[in-house]
Amino acid sequence: MAALKSSAPNTAWAGTRPYGPDGPVDGSGSQRTILMEQVAYCLFDTSLGRCGIAWRGCDDSQAPPAVTLFQFPETTTAKTEASIARKSGARARGAPPRRMVEIIEKVCQHLRGEVQDFRDVEVELNGASPFALLVYEAARQIPAGQTRTYGELARELGRRGAARAVGRALGSNPIGLIIPCHRVVAAGGKAGGFSAHGGWATKTRLLVIEGARC
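The structure corresponding to this sequence follows.
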């Protein structure tokens, strides 16, 4: 299981192949534009629309790249790209390394209804509080097709009465889907909030894809 980390080129990628400054690449490392441990991002098509993902690291590093941000589709591709560029702090474009290509393929499969387990994906959560890191780790342990309420997650963490604090932490989750905050719902069968574009409608759609009762 991948640990949570708390602690630049960017390329737009649409379809099934990433694109770098010199054209399409195959994800095998034949075109390595990320030479330092900088943050990079790319866009890719899914059944929900064009998503984005940002990471730190490259194929040349001994450590696997860590996901730093996941971006659900906005109303336009331009808005999606502007949002992930701003949130990730990436400064230039770059093609995803091999491991990121694998993660992107898993995301695409998951959103098509071929449910995946993302707990082995390395993530980096710089700036997250110790409590938020505990919340995110607990959320990652919720299996696809199941949900927990904010209160239940708080009790699992030994923090009875901290349901709102759990909700605030999840509302700041920068790596939606991979850290599945959509699986944490309000009491009484209500979906609860969701900070991604589309709000509760997007959250409900993700739960339906995973076969959860909602």
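The first helix runs from residue 77 to 88.
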